[in-house]
Design a protein that fits this description.
heterodimer; A: 576 residues; mainly alpha; Sodium/glucose cotransporter; two-stranded antiparallel sheet; 74% helix; 1% strand; globular; B: 108 residues; two-stranded antiparallel ribbon; 3 helices; 2 strands; 67% helix; elongated
Chain lengths: 576, 108
C-alpha cells in the first residue's frame, strides 16, 4: 500500500487539475449556502499568520517524512526495527488522530455534554477489545489486508469482495468527515464559504498526495505525533489561564469549570435560571439521550474500533507479538492524552459561549479560543494541527480504499493474470474516483463530524468485527455463514445510514436504531446469523475450504500441523 | 497435504488445548474488567438516577465532587480511559506470566 502512495504522482496530478479548476470557478462566485454555516460562527476573512503557520506546519509534517525516507531505504517498518513499543504506540496514536478526534469529539462534547463522553469511552475501550480478541492472533497470521485475511480463512472470493467493498465504504464515510473538518479549517484560515473551501481542501489534499507521492514520503509517525499533540495541548494551557485557572494542568483544572457550568457560572457571569437549567441538564447523565442510546453508542464505537481495517493493519506491521501487545498499551496512552484534552475544549466552549448550539459545535476548537481572545497565532497552530491530522488521514484512507479495489478485487478476483503495472493504474483511477465521491458527500455532510465517523464505525462493527472474531475464535464458522452475516450487517447499517439522511425517525439520533449506534442490535444478530448459517451449511462445505480454514486456524493459535501456503508470485499487497 | 489431519476444534467458550485455554483465560479476565468499566459504570449511574423524577439521572453520583469534577463526569471522561490503559497493562503482565510459565514447563 505504501508504494501506491509513493508512485501515484500521475494520478494525483490529474486529480489536482480536475479538482482545482472547479474550485477556482466556485470560489469566485459562491453565494452563502446553508450547508457549512459553522463558518459564519467564527471570525471571517483571510488570516495571514495562521496561513503562514499552516504552510510551515505542513512543510514540517511532509519534510519530516522526507528526511526519514533518506535515512531508511528498505521501507519504514522494515528499516525501523529498532523502534520499540513507545515508537509504535506513537505511530498508532498518530494514525488514529484525525479531524474527528481534533474537532469532532470536542464539538460533540460541547453540544451533548455528558452524553458526548460516550464517544471517548467508545474510542478508547475498543482497543481493549482489539487487544484481547484479535491482535495477537492476527499478528501470527501475518498478511497485509483484512479482505485478504477473511478471503483466505474462509477460502471465498465472495467474502473477500464484500470485505473489500466494506473497506471502500468505510474509507468514503470516514474521509467525508475529515473533509468537512479540513473544509471548515480552510474556510476559517482563508475566509472562504464552505463550498469553496471543500474544493480548496480537495486541492490541498491532492497537493499533499502529489508532494508526498513525488518525494516518496514515508510517514514518520513518531515526530508527526509530537507535532499534532503539541498543536492540540499548547493552546489549552493558555486557554485555561484566560479562564482564570493556573494553567498548570488543564486536564484536571477544568473539573471546577464543569461544576461551575452546572450552576450556571460562565465567562459572561451568572446565567438566567432558564439558561442555567438548560446547561445543567446538558451535563446531567440523561439530559441529551437516554441509557439505551448511550450504551448503544459506546458498544458500536467499541466493536467498530476493533473492526476498523486500517487499525488492525497496524498489527501486521510490527516486529513481533510482544511489541504488538505493548504498542497497544502505549498507543492507548498517547490517544488518552488527546481524549483527556478534548473535553477541556468543550468545557471552554461552554464557558465562553454557552448555548451556541449545533452551528458552532464542529468549529468549537476555533471558536472557544477566539472568544477567549487567544490570538490568531495559537489558534492558527491549533487549526494547522487539525488540518495536518485530517490530511494525513484522508490520504491514508483514499489509498487504503483504492488498494482494496486494486488488490483484492482487480488483481485477485477479476484479472488474476494482470501485471503489477495494470493493477497500479487501476489503483490510481480509483483513488481519483473515491476522492470525487468524497467531495460530493462532503459538500452536503449529513451530520456532525464525529457522528459521520461513528457511522463508519458502525459499518466496521457490523460487518468486519463479527467475521474476524468468529474467523479467529470459532472453527465452525465457514464462508456461507460469514457471507450471510456480512451481507445482513452491511445491509442493516446502510439502511440505518440512509434512514438518518432521509430523517426517518426510527434511524435518527433518538430512534430505535440510530445510524451512529446501530451495532448494539445488529452486531449480535450478525454473530448469530454467522453461527447458525455456518452450522446449517456445514455439510455443503467443500474439502478445500475446510482444509484451508483449518490450516490458518493452526497458524493463528500456534498449533502443530500448519503447512505453509503457496503464494502466487508477485501478488503481495505491498506492491500497491 | 497428502495426509488427512483431523480438523481442529476452536471455540472461545470451549478451549480445546492448554495453550488456547491459557490465552482465553487472560482474555476473559481482562474482558470482565472491560465490561465493568464500559457498561457497569454507566449502569450504576443509571440505577442511582432512578430516583430523579425528571428522568435526568440526578443522584448522589452527580452531586459528589472528585478533583473538582462532578463524579459522574470524571468517571467517564477520565476514570474509564485510565482504566482501559491499566487493563492493557494487565493484559501484557498476564501474558508475560503465561510465557514465563510456558518456559518453565518447557525446561522441565
Amino acid at each position: 500500500m505504501k508504494s501506491l502512495f509513493c508512485r501515484r504522482s500521475a494520478a494525483a496530478q490529474w486529480l489536482a487539475a480536475l479538482v482545482l479548476l472547479p474550485a477556482l470557478f466556485v470560489s469566485g462566485v459562491t453565494p452563502a449556502l446553508a450547508v457549512g454555516e459553522e463558518i459564519f460562527q467564527v471570525q471571517q476573512g483571510f488570516k495571514l499568520v495562521p496561513a503562514i503557520i499552516m504552510v510551515a506546519l505542513l512543510c514540517i509534517y511532509i519534510g519530516v517524512g522526507f528526511l526519514s525516507k533518506v535515512s531508511s531505504t528498505s521501507g519504514y517498518w522494515v528499516a525501523g526495527q529498532g523502534i520499540g513499543k513507545w515508537g509504535n504506540g506513537a505511530a498508532i496514536a498518530s494514525d488514529w488522530m484525525s479531524a474527528a478526534s481534533f474537532m469532532g469529539v470536542a464539538g460533540l462534547l460541547y453540544l451533548k455534554g455528558w452524553f458526548g463522553l460516550g464517544y471517548i469511552i467508545g474510542w478508547t475501550g475498543g482497543y481493549v477489545l482489539l487487544l484481547c480478541l484479535i491482535a495477537a492472533q492476527l499478528r501470527r497470521f501475518g498478511k497485509y489486508t483484512i479482505p485478504e485475511f477473511l478471503g483466505d480463512r474462509f477460502n471465498s472470493n465472495g467474502v473477500r469482495l464484500i470485505a473489500a467493498g466494506v473497506t471502500v465504504l468505510i474509507a468514503i464515510t470516514y474521509a467525508t468527515a475529515q473533509f468537512k473538518g479540513i473544509g471548515l479549517i480552510c474556510g476559517w484560515i482563508f475566509g472562504m464559504s464552505y463550498t469553496a473551501s471543500v474544493f480548496f481542501a480537495a486541492g490541498v489534499v491532492c497537493t499533499y498526495m502529489l508532494i508526498s507521492g513525488m518525494t516518496g514520503v514515508t510517514r514518520n509517525q513518531q515526530i508527526q505525533y509530537v507535532v499534532l499533540i503539541s498543536a492540540f495541548l499548547i493552546p489549552l494551557w493558555l486557554l485555561m489561564r484566560k479562564a482564570g485557572g493556573t494553567g498548570l494542568l488543564p486536564q484536571l483544572e477544568y473539573g471546577s469549570i464543569i461544576s461551575d457550568l452546572m450552576s450556571g457560572k460562565t465567562a459572561a457571569g451568572q446565567l438566567d435560571p432558564a439558561a442555567t437549567a438548560r446547561l445543567r441538564d446538558t451535563y446531567l447523565p440523561w439530559g441529551q439521550g437516554d441509557f439505551y442510546h448511550f450504551i448503544a453508542l459506546v458498544f458500536t464505537l467499541m466493536v467498530g474500533t476493533a473492526g476498523l481495517p486500517h487499525i488492525m493493519i497496524r498489527f501486521y506491521t510490527v516486529k513481533n507479538e510482544d511489541v504488538a501487545r505493548r504498542s497497544v498499551l502505549w498507543g492507548l496512552f498517547f490517544i488518552g492524552l488527546l481524549y483527556w484534552s478534548s473535553p477541556v475544549y468543550a468545557a471552554m466552549g461552554q464557558f465562553w459561549n454557552p448555548g451556541g448550539g449545533k452551528m458552532v459545535a464542529d468549529v468549537i476548537i476555533l471558536s472557544a479560543p477566539e472568544r477567549a481572545g487567544l490570538g490568531s497565532t495559537f489558534i492558527g497552530y491549533l487549526a494547522s494541527g487539525a488540518l495536518a491530522a485530517g490530511l494525513s488521514t484522508v490520504a491514508g484512507l483514499l489509498v487504503a480504499g483504492a488498494s482494496a479495489i486494486a488488490h483484492d478485487w482487480y488483481a485477485t478476483i477479476y484479472r488474476p493474470t494482470c501485471t503489477d503495472r495494470q493493477a497500479l493504474r487501476v489503483g490510481r483511477i480509483f483513488t481519483a474516483l473515491l476522492c470525487a465521491v468524497v467531495i460530493i458527500f462532503a459538500l452536503n455532510p449529513p451530520a456532525l463530524i464525529a457522528q459521520i465517523v461513528a457511522m463508519a464505525f458502525a459499518i466496521a462493527g457490523n460487518t468486519i468485527f463479527p467475521a474476524v472474531v468468529l474467523g479467529i475464535w470459532y472453527s465452525g464458522s465457514n464462508k456461507y455463514g460469514t457471507l450471510a452475516g456480512m451481507i445482513f450487517g452491511l445491509g442493516m447499517t446502510l439502511l440505518a445510514m440512509l434512514g438518518w439522511i432521509f430523517k426517518i425517525p426510527m434511524f435518527s439520533g433518538d430512534g430505535i436504531l440510530p445510524a451512529t449506534s446501530s451495532a448494539l442490535i445488529v452486531c449480535p444478530l450478525v454473530f448469530l446469523i454467522n453461527i447458525l448459517v455456518s452450522k446449517a451449511m456445514q455439510d455443503k462445505l467443500d474439502k478445500e475450504s475446510s482444509r484451508r480454514g483449518d490450516n490458518i486456524l493452526r497458524k493463528m493459535h500456534n498449533l502443530p500441523g500448519y503447512i505453509e501456503e503457496q503464494q502466487a508470485p508477485g501478488k503481495s499487497a505491498t506492491a500497491y | 497435504m497428502t495426509e488427512e489431519k483431523p480438523p481442529i476444534y476452536i471455540n472461545f467458550f470451549k478451549p480445546s488445548t492448554a495453550a488456547i485455554r491459557a490465552e482465553v483465560s487472560i482474555a476473559r479476565c481482562v474482558l470482565l474488567f472491560w465490561f465493568f468499566l464500559s457498561y457497569a459504570i454507566p449502569g450504576l449511574i443509571w440505577l442511582a438516577g432512578q430516583g430523579d423524577p425528571r428522568g435526568m439521572g440526578e443522584s448522589f453520583i452527580t452531586h459528589a465532587r472528585f478533583l473538582g469534577f462532578p463524579l459522574h463526569y470524571w468517571l467517564l471522561a477520565q476514570g474509564c480511559t485510565l482504566g482501559y490503559i491499566l487493563l492493557c497493562k494487565l493484559y501484557c503482565e498476564l501474558w508475560d506470566r503465561k510465557l514465563r510459565q510456558q518456559d518453565k514447563e518447557a525446561k522441565r
